[in-house]
Amino acid sequence: MGGRLKGRCVMAIEESELRSVLGEYVQRHPSERESLAPLLDHSEGLARLTSSTHFDGGHLTCGALVVNAARQILVIRHRRYRLWLLPGGHIEQSDESLLATALRELFEETGITAAEVAPSAHLGTRPLDVELHPIPARADQPAHWHADVVFLFVADHPVVRPDTSEVLSYSWYDLKSAPIGRRAHKAGAALRVTATDGSSEVVAQPFPNETPPAMSRA
Q1: Would residue 116 count as lying in a domain?
Q2: Structural contact between residues 91 and 14, judged by C-beta atoms closer than 8 angstroms
Q3: For position 56, which CATH number holds?
Q4: Helix ranges restricted to H, the chain
Q5: Which of 114, 121, 139 is nearest to 192 (CA)?
Q6: Is residue 218 part of a domain?
Q7: 168 in a domain, yes or no?
Q8: pLDDT value at residue 5
Q9: Which helix (H) or strand (E) holds 159?
């Protein structure tokens, strides 16, 4: 979860894209504008927040919320933080978009590739959730915040192959019991469900105009 970024200055994603993605999110969720003000009104610009080596307020991070065919959410127990979290982490210089960061982190931590998941039919490649949360000071960094941009993906029966250097364990939680706060509710609301044969099916759509990126673990 971002440990590989130490010592790097990462400003790979254009300011205009960041403004576009986050601006569209706030249009859908105007009541969250005030809580996101430290991010949206950052004086140094959003692109600077993609660098994990600068602490001018906080960092942009990205996460992946994966829902399987049984309408369960994948949650990992992170080795460093000893918490149940969604797969995710800091932006790296090779990432071309916030979506690409979420897909890369999903693969690095769980082994699930971009070819195994798809965006939900309702949201497409737009973020499901953006939330600020505080990060306490440590010996090598001051207190700051993370603005976590979470994308919703669906998959039939993905095979989880966790990176044990970062992940202690993983579990699939029902939407109502997943320990991820409001994001589980948002995921349930965003999923489009069909019931053609009396059962529920999670509906997905392909990644638009692009081939899922090739991935390899370092």
Answers
A1: yes
A2: no
A3: 3.90.79.10
A4: 15-28, 37-40, 98-110, 182-190
A5: 121
A6: no
A7: yes
A8: 35
A9: none
